């Protein structure tokens, strides 16, 4: 009889558990902390709705849409304000909106005339990716130096808190490699996709950004509610996993036919197991701190008419970027107030994320003063430190993935899922858990 131990109650573990629940396969989730959901956490304080971790979702995504429908969360969706469509990139000390059309692209001061012409030549660049190519090398080869510096670099810091000079193009953004391989050009691939969509008779739904009315934590909380508390053991860290003589897995003195590990790799490598997990040390998680800062609206001169602001490494600023939550979503801050979420550290400067507040805040405020016209102190500060924030998809992670696959093939009933394996987005993590659950169901 199948019975599954799921170690880790983050979104991947919850997703796997939900699939097992629907097929009436018994399982237990072992979660070390007092709540499930991992990095997805919403805090209500000072009249604000603050996200300690991921702040939004992107759609349409069939896997995510299906789950939201199954959890009866459609009525709780909170779409982004249409007026918050600008994405600002800092160049020469000034926030500049990314162009959203060809006309804006021609006029934007974000790129020089030479860089714009070079970018338009991308379809005629005849080159191919090579094994071990970094994301930075890929971008410069296809797009040129300025788009790498003032578009990809801040974009990667916003998603991965990472450095494109370290990330593997094939591991971090495999779609780019596929687009180049199939079409010889990123622009040609985009045009082909657009034409195919038009001729199919099913126009592609516009991509939207959304959260939930009471914040991102509604997603894992609803999963916990649907799964049921009897199948979840919180405040129950697992330190030892053993293989029993019967071929089952011994977890916390109980026997299971299948074992699913969804912990971050740095936590998995500390487990005592009958198989070697030391290779997981190769996955690097840089430190990131987020500060959610509440101000009166008149304390900032910038209109905050966008999603947020990202800062390229060459600008030599203390912070990585800023989100404008109260501009993006409704009811995120009191009336006539603004909420900013500032990110510090990442793979550029991980040590900065661990600085004490008396060193952190003055440096943050200096950047906000010079870039957004900030005057005065915040009325409220909410600090969230992630010493091991986001797994970095460097070249080393490809070898890690191969070793994980080998372990699964050589140890019956052993499975791995999480954002270190199938992508770092929430949708990726949900899919990772579901896919493994389906493998267990079909076994």
Summarize the structure.
The chain is α/β, with parallel strands linked by helices and 443 residues long. Among the domains are: 4-39 and 217-283 and 393-442, FAD/NAD(P)-binding domain; 101-199, protoporphyrinogen ix oxidase, domain 3.
What Rg, in angstroms, do the CA atoms define?
Answer: 23 Å
The rounded distance between the terminal residues' Cα atoms is 12 Å
Helicity level, as a percent range?
A: 25-40%
Mean pLDDT over all positions: 95
Say which CATH homologous superfamily of the domain at 4-39 and 217-283 and 393-442 is assigned: FAD/NAD(P)-binding domain
* Spatial strand arrangement across the major sheet: 8-7-16-17-18-15-19
- Low-pLDDT sequence parts: none
